[in-house]
User: What shape does this take?
Amino acid sequence: MFRRTAITVLSVVLATSGLTVAGTAAATTATAAAKPGTAAQPADETANKITTKHWNGISGLLHGRWSGLLPGLGGGLRLSPIGSLPTREYTDPFGDGSPVNYQYGSWTSPVIETGYPIDESVSSWNASTPTGTWVETTFRGRLADGTWTKWYVMGRWASGDDFAAGDIHRTSLDDQGDANANIWTDTFSAKTGHEPVAYQTRVTLLRPVGSHSSPVLDGITTMTNEYLPTVTSPTTSAFTLGRQVELNVPPYAQNIHAGEYPEFGGGGEVWCSPTSSTMVLYYWAQKHRAQRVPAAELAGIVAPNGDPQVDYGAINTWDYTYEGSGNWPFNTAYTHRFGLTSFVTRLRSLAEAEKFIAAGIPVITSLSWSLSEMPEAGYSTNGHLMVIVGFTAAGDPILNDPASNSNANVRSIYTRKNFEKVWQKATDGIVYINVPKGMHLPANIPGVTKNW
Assistant: This one.
């Protein structure tokens, strides 16, 4: 059930040295902490500025500019097979130390003016990467004085793990912080006084020199938001469905995998994110709108208690720098492999989540809580992901909570007030949205910035 935040990483480091973390250290979290000097704000969800910009398919990608790329026959953009392409060297930090020379091309978004100062941003991508190829997503912001930040690496992604054949180890990038911002694994976090007012996102496609394969960029999404204040007693959103609605999302328990694949975290509590992603992937697969993990891919997976697709998901979302499978965009990039259009964003409330449930779309949420904050859960966590699969007639969320010891116990009902509060407080409403390609999303809430 583990999902990293800056304070979680700090807690682990201090705990191993026999120290404890004071409650005030929560001010260092990447996603929920108040900036110094920030005044308390009312719990008015309409004041929360969150914007999600999609560039999906050729029609969406046409709005950017590209170099060294061509439209592919099956859609998306791929490296040009003709002419000379620039090259760059990359040494996989988890490989054998040998540099590899890659040809590359790139797609760059237009300059997006948000209309508010950007405190945080998460980019998520949909791409195919044949063996030996990979993609790198970067982000930069334009400050109020017109100067640009550097390009920050938001992820280096390869879907495969045939390292002998040339796959790189997928990874985030540490130690990118400067005077303008920090990068917390997958999240751009501006420093006070250096908040961008506009941004660009870039995706670079790479293949080894001499290879005829190419990655394919199918889409890119960037979510930005102004600072969302941590509110002690936020107003609980009104229930909009007025009836019980529950989606038939298959339940998978992460704890039955405890001890499996120790090189990938050893199952159990650290696999909440890929377990949740697998539940949603197989929900769509049973509706024949997505693929299951091929049987041949699962044949070599050792899962004594069943559900080898969960192990497979953990292995194939593993971030070798972060040393975990909780990287948000890595999870949405993973589900895209099987035919889904997937992205990371923030929702302001459970009322917004209800629009997805009404449309038949389960919502994966990222949150944390103490036992006193959500006693009905029966446990506390520094970071967890679970799936909203419906709502009761009283408006309480119905969850597929993977923090269970059996699939039969995954379905849970948590109190609306408690769940909404800890979700918004912990991650300001982070979610994964996964839908079949071409499926329309529900209409955005009128009168607020469009966050999906």
Q: What stands out?
A: The chain is about 15% helix and 30% strand. Residues 245-436 form a domain with the Cathepsin B; Chain A fold (CATH 3.90.70.10).
